[in-house]
Amino acid sequence: MAPITVYHADLHIHTALSPCAGEEMTPPAIVSAALQAGLQIIAVTDHNSAGNVAAVQEAARGTGLEVLAGMEVQTREDVHLVCLFATAAAALAWQEEVYRHLPAEENREDYFGPQILMDATGWETGREKRLLLGSASLSVEEVVREVNNRGGLCIPAHVDRPSYSLVANLGVIPPGLPVPALELGLFSPEVARKRFPTLAGWPLVAASDAHYSGDIGRRVTEYDLEAVSIAALTRALRRQHFKVVIDAGRNNFR
Question: Tag placement on the chain: N or C end, fewer CB within 10 Å?
Answer without folding.
Answer: N
